Amino acid sequence: MHGNGDKAPLYKENLTPEQLLKIIFDYTAKIANDQRLDSVLILMANMGRELVLADRCAVWLVDQLREELFTVVAHGVGELRIPYGSGLVGASICSGEPIFIDDAYKDDRHNRDSDAKTGYRTKAIMTIPFRNNDGEIIGAYQAINKLTKEERFSERDLEYLSLAASYTGKSLESVMLHEEIFATQKEIIETMGEIGESRSKETGKHVRRVSQYSYLIALGLGMTEQEADRLRRASPMHDIGKVAIPDAILQKSGKLTEEEFELMKSHTVIGYELLRHSRRELLLTAAIVAHQHHEKWDGSGYPQGLRGEDIHIYGRITAVADVFDALGSARVYKPAWELERILSLFEQERGRHFDPRVVDAFLAQLPLILEVRDRESDV
Ligand code: C2E
Ligand code: SIN
Ligand code: SIN
Ligand code: FE
Ligand code: FE
Prior knowledge:
Number of strands: 6
Mean pLDDT: 85
Largest sheet: 6 strands, antiparallel
Bound molecules: ligand C2E, succinic acid, fe (iii) ion
CATH class of the largest domain: Mainly Alpha
Low-confidence stretches: 1-7, 178-184
Strand order of the largest sheet: 3-2-1-6-5-4
Oligomer: single chain
């Protein structure tokens, strides 16, 4: 028997970080791939609902002309319109602050009209305004009724929905302005990469530089613009698996013990596992790069110990780009190296750590690579 008629409601369990990332990956990829406002709003609402385990989630937008707030998606409800400034969602949009209450009926900012019409009982509510690129508030996320045992939203939910809101504010605007959605997708992926990097105190700039270097090297190898561009967009995710590595290891100022390094190595497999279930080609490419960027040409790398051309060309390219940038940057565990010292390491590792052809393409592109390095420097 599956019916739970008169039994207690079926509560949900809080999400693991892996589940959370998967939701973000899946939805942001879908959102970035969609150009229609109404379907983007539905995807956003679904993402919000899944991220915070809400029963319903609505994305409200400001209608400047009519001085109203409207939503085309409230789970189980059609379009709703309310005067600008009314309800909790209006209060949140006016103040620019999130609101987060445990029982809507005990708060008189809540407008019970829609419940009266639909027979729904709104209890816990969390509302988060979101902004466009110019910092203007253009709408709000509103999550209704928490499906875990506590039946209320937590600080953590606020964080997750804020994260969703920070992406979606931007993707929404670009849809609304009929902009190239491609830019949003790129930004989302970079942001995801930056989340991984920021955990290890490396800057988001590292991610962007590695991405540009990989692109230049790919072109230097004679790849088409399209192939090179695919790598440029996928490589920011190469270290995403570091999100699962403990801070004590990531931020250790000294050398890692053998045991710690073993754990560190798992960032390749973790990144691969996070990304490989996607149906999007771009994320599948990112999965390969995350998996293979620490393989070495002579077979002495990890995690699989692949050798030579068994390593995907994108992995071989990202290896060069990543090490070039890691050596040239200060890390908690080491100072930045001078260019000469880096180049002599590349010479030494040509045919050992690195594919000789990739090193040659890298050297041929060095002037352009150094331009990127100056433009995207950490300070
Ligand atoms: P990462 O800091 O991004 O470094 C990426 C790769 O650049 C390293 O992969 C390595 O191939 C190269 N690399 C970085 N610094 C040096 C260096 O001083 N000398 C040489 N010869 N190569 C260097 P690797 O070794 O597989 O390390 C993967 C990640 O593990 C590193 O990413 C970093 O997050 C962490 N890690 C490695 N060694 C240490 C350490 O001693 N202390 C700490 N806290 N983290 C470390
Ligand atoms: C909302 O107030 O955001 C919609 C409420 C509902 O889904 O019933
Ligand atoms: C409404 O559906 O009327 C808005 C709900 C609220 O924010 O109180
Ligand atoms: Fe790595
Ligand atoms: Fe890296």
